Structures are given as C-alpha cells and as structure tokens.
Amino acid sequence: SSVTIPPPECMLRPLEVPFRYLFGPGPSNVPPRILAAGGRAIIGHLHPEMYEIMNDIKKGIQYAFQTQNNMTIAMSGSGHAAMECAIFNTVEPGESVLVAVNGIWGERVAEIAERMGANVHIMVKAPGGIFSNEEIEKVFVLYLHCISLSSHNDDSSFKFKHNTLFLVDTVASLGASPIFMDQQNIDILYTGSQKALNAPPGTAPISFNERACQKMFNRKTKPVSYLFDMAHLSNYWGNDGQPARLYHHTGPVSGFFSLRESLAILAEKGLEESWRHHREVAGYLWKGLEDMGIKLFIQNKDLRLPSVTTIVIPEGYNWREMLQYMMKHHNMEMTGGLGPSTGMVMRVGLMGYNCQKTNADMVLAALADALKNCKKSKA
Ligand code: GLV
C-alpha cells in the first residue's frame, strides 16, 4: 500500500483564531492567567504532582459549592458530562426520575434519563417559568405516591421521599449567584468550567453527598458508561480511601491546570465578592437595556440570573439578523434562545472576567447599533 491521500491544504496553513468578545452564555473569554496555566508543560495524568493539582481542584470546588463532600471531582468533559455522570451513577434502569422542565436543560436531563431506561416524569413550565419550593414538594409527593402504588407498597411515600435525591444544575450560575450545597441539602450538584469560572470548556465540577454515595455505590447494575462510572472516577480522584490511584482514563491535563487556576481566582476574590460584583454589573446592564426600551424576559429582578441576561427580542426584528450584525460589526457574540426558548429571547452573558461595566457599555452600544441598522421584519 502507499499513501494516496495527500496532506490536506488546510493543514499546511497556520491555525487562525480570531479575537471575539464572548458576551453570550458561554464560553466566556478566558483571562490571560488561566490561558497561561493551560499552556504549561504537560505532565503525566498519574504523576504525583498531578494528584496534588487534582487535590487542589477538589478543595477549590468544595469552596465554590460550599460543601464538605468528599465525593467531589471534576469530570473530563463539558457540563453535559457532569449531567450524564449524575444520572448514570445514581439512577438504575426502571427507577423514577422527576424533572422540573422550564427550558432546554430540563429537557436534556429528561432525555438522558430516558435513554438509560429510567421511568421519567416531567413537570413543565413555559421557558423562564419558576418552580416554587412548595410546587416541587407537592409534585414530588404526588409522583412518589404514584410510584408507591405502582410498586404495591402502600405507605412508602415517606420512604420514597426519604430516598429521593435532589439534583441541581448550576452550569450558568456558579460563581455568579449564591449556592450552598450542604446548607441547602443538595445531594448532587454540578457546573461547567466555561461560564463564570472562565476556564476553557472541557472540564466540569461535580459533587455527591453521603446520601448520593450510598445510592450510587450500592447499585445492583453497573452504570451504562464506563468513562463516567464513579466507582472508577472516585479512585482516580483519590476519594475512595484506596492507597493507589489506578489508571482509568487519561484526564485532560491542561484542562485541569486551567480549572485549578480559575478556582484559585475565585478563592482569591471570594465568593461573596464575586456574587456582589456580578449582581452590580448585571443591575447596570439591566438598567441600560430598559433605558433603551429593551424588555427583560424575566420580569422579577430577584429571580433573574446575574450571569446570563435574557432579553425579549425587540418587536419586529429578526433576532438572527441582529446577532449576525453584532458579530460582523462589533466582533461580539450574543446568542438566541435554545430549545423551547428559541425565537423568544436573546442572551447576554457577562461572566467572571467579562463581568465589567465597560463590557456592559459595549453590549448596549452594539445592541443600539443593531436596532438602528437591522431592518425591521415580520419574522
Ligand atoms: C450553552 O451552554 C448555552 O447556554 O447556550
């Protein structure tokens, strides 16, 4: 045999990556300090120095999540990896999962659970709809009652309630708005690296409390994924009490360097200051938008995320055209909605390093320019 396929032309040209203002829902711009950390020389994924870095990451996540959970790691993968890890490990085929769906992420969790054979129930609200604690509790009891009946176990509601695990997704909010994993009795919590943490996409912190560990380490079946099996990952992260960490998979070494640095920046700044700062800049952006006559999608200020702001598509404008205009003329990414919110909203994210009033001013100027120069259409 011989080489018949020549080297592709494109591979003989240098890599080109433009600068962009990443003012959408993520990834956000990565500060030089985190970029530099990711550019450090590679070491082996099983070297002792790497274990130290992973131990640091674990402590950084425990701080960011406000948890003392031993079973705290970073996934090799994006937020979706953490989402799948949570479901794959804690749910067995045929078990029930109840998902509060008010947009694409609830839909995704429901689909992931359904794919692995769970019995999925959903409670749905329109995009942006808020579930109160009372509603969640009420629906839990309702579903748990159904489940208990179908399993011929008359008085098991309490037991089921007791056995229920509470999973929370903070991909778009960690570091920008308060979360207290232990104090809020959250059993499983995860986030992504590329939003307010400002690391590149590709790693995802996740933590399981003791109740979640009891459930996932006493399963009858093996989790459907080998890569995301917490029995292996807990060893890789030195959480299982074993003297040796064995080879499971090769973690993203540079991604972990970057994640460590992003967690270090959060620790130096302090959670309270980071939350305060995001709220202040978001408030500034919201006022600027309202002064321009742009409507915010979530009416109640207290329920808005300070990290990603959803705005109602200005009447008569084509949102795709506006986004393209701002990309072309301002080098700036904002995005539309996703899933059920597509065509309803545009999203602006000012997270971590990007969370600055000067950036909010740039967003406002770009939007004003787009409103002036994009044609009004019926679409
Ligand atoms: C992706 O994470 C998004 O929110 O668009």
TrEMBL record:
GO terms for molecular function: alanine-glyoxylate transaminase activity; L-serine-pyruvate transaminase activity. The keyword Secreted does not apply. It is an enzyme of class 2 (transferase). Keywords: Aminotransferase, Pyridoxal phosphate, Transferase. Homodimer. The keyword Transferase applies. This is Alanine--glyoxylate aminotransferase. It catalyses: glyoxylate + L-alanine = glycine + pyruvate; L-serine + pyruvate = 3-hydroxypyruvate + L-alanine. InterPro entries: Aminotrans_V_dom (IPR000192), Aminotrans_V_PyrdxlP_BS (IPR020578), PyrdxlP-dep_Trfase (IPR015424), PyrdxlP-dep_Trfase_major (IPR015421), PyrdxlP-dep_Trfase_small (IPR015422), SP_NH2Trfase/AEP_transaminase (IPR024169). Substrate binds at residue 347. Belongs to the class-V pyridoxal-phosphate-dependent aminotransferase family. Its EC number is 2.6.1.44, 2.6.1.51. One of its GO terms (cellular component) is peroxisome. It comes from the Eukaryota. GO terms for biological process: glycine biosynthetic process, by transamination of glyoxylate. The modification N6-(pyridoxal phosphate)lysine is found at residue 195. Its cofactor is pyridoxal 5'-phosphate. The lineage of its organism: Eukaryota, Metazoa, Chordata, Craniata, Vertebrata. Gene3D superfamilies: Aspartate Aminotransferase, domain 1, Type I PLP-dependent aspartate aminotransferase-like (Major domain). Residues 21-356 form the Aminotransferase class V domain.
